[in-house]
Description:
Layout: E1 12-13, E2 16-17, H1 23-41, H2 43-57, E3 63-65, H3 67-73, E4 76-81, H4 91-104, E5 109-114, H5 118-130, E6 133-139, H6 140-145, H7 147-155, E7 159-163, H8 170-183, E8 188-189, H9 200-208, H10 210-223, E9 230-234, H11 239-245, E10 255-263, H12 274-277, E11 279-283, E12 286-290, H13 315-322, E13 326-332, H14 333-347, H15 353-361, E14 372-377, H16 385-394
Parallel strand pairs: 4-14, 5-6, 5-8, 6-7, 9-10, 9-14, 10-13
Antiparallel strand pairs: 1-2, 3-4, 11-12
The structure holds pyridoxal-5'-phosphate.
Pyridoxal-5'-phosphate (PLP) binds at residues 89, 115-116, 118-119, 193, 234-240, 307-308, 352, 354-355, 378-379.
Amino acid sequence: MNINFNVDSNGYYGKFGGVFVPKELEANIKELRDNYRRILDSDEFQNEYINLLKTYVGRPSSLYFSEKLSQQYAAKIYLKREDLNHTGAHKINNTIGQIILAKHMNKKHIIAETGAGQHGVATATVCALFDMECTIYMGAEDIKRQSPNVSKMKMLGANVVAATTGTQTLSDAVNEALNAWVCNPSAYYLLGSAVGPHPYPDLVSRLQSVISKEIKAQLTEYESVEYPDYVIACVGGGSNAAGAFYEFLDHLPTKLVGVEAAGLGLDTTKHAASLTKGKEAILHGSKTLVIQDENDAVMEAYSISPGLDYPGIGPQHAYLHDTKRVKYIAVTDDEAMNAAINLTKKEGIIPAIESSHALAGLAKIDFKENDIVVLNLSGRGDKDIEAYIEYLKLN
Length: 395
Ligand SMILES: Cc1ncc(COP(=O)(O)O)c(C=O)c1O
């Protein structure tokens, strides 16, 4: 059977996805849905996007063979170095693409949400570059946890608005950004992950698919094969994983592994494991898997990593989980922090705590000796230095 792992013409991945937005946003979503493919596929868009990825972001990002991790895990481990991108993570691939799209749609004001601040910085950066007004919603708790990124956004000229409802984290920032869009429909909402109403999950995945396109070309050069045995990525909303998996979805021999945050443990209520523990619900505009309490209320997500503590997941991942095309595992705060320390000591690379979850996933997979494994190192750990120091003091 030939399964379509990508979005169908109605905006669904199997039973997940769709468009569940207030009436006031329907026209905006329709405008985006009617235009995004035409603009993305145009030569004009592609030329500008590819040129900026090369000259501004610094792509292709390197595919680094880690001899020490390869010895440790008895397989050939490559790291896809998204941490080397301008602004320090994969998020810039998406913001460069969406700002060009916004320009083509004659938009002048950008609204965005951010959790770890990486998407906020990447958005503020492209707004500076394209001379657009920029308003970023960020949970008040995340503002405290990621203060260097908040300072960067302000220096780049963004207006950072604190979301003070709920847990004051990413989920609340999304709610407030969507509300702001309702009040200001002429703005462009630049979503930072593969979540939200159709067409955002598809749009973001397409823009992040540059990651897997490069992996294919680089593996051809280094290993004379296009397809690795494994691709591993962390999942928050799911954008870096969607981009790293994109080109391999239809090649079933390539095993795909997504790693979500088990926080303090899956047997506690302090985690963000929406795929492992979630139930179907509508969150932030689409039908997906969401962690919920016994009364079916959305549970507070928790992870030491601010980019992963989101109670939902992009609808494509919910479908890839359902169809078992991707195996999703969960690692705890402690496992992720130890994996970060291990990489730092062994390779001299300080990873983002989000990416450290993918690194911790390595210990949970039974590799064969010659397996070619690509791990998407989604970001660098500069923003997390305080959290690492605090953790090392306590442990
Ligand atoms: C470095 C890094 N990796 C991963 C993520 C998780 O997001 P996503 O699942 O959309 O890739 C974030 C989110 O902020 C991030 O900053």
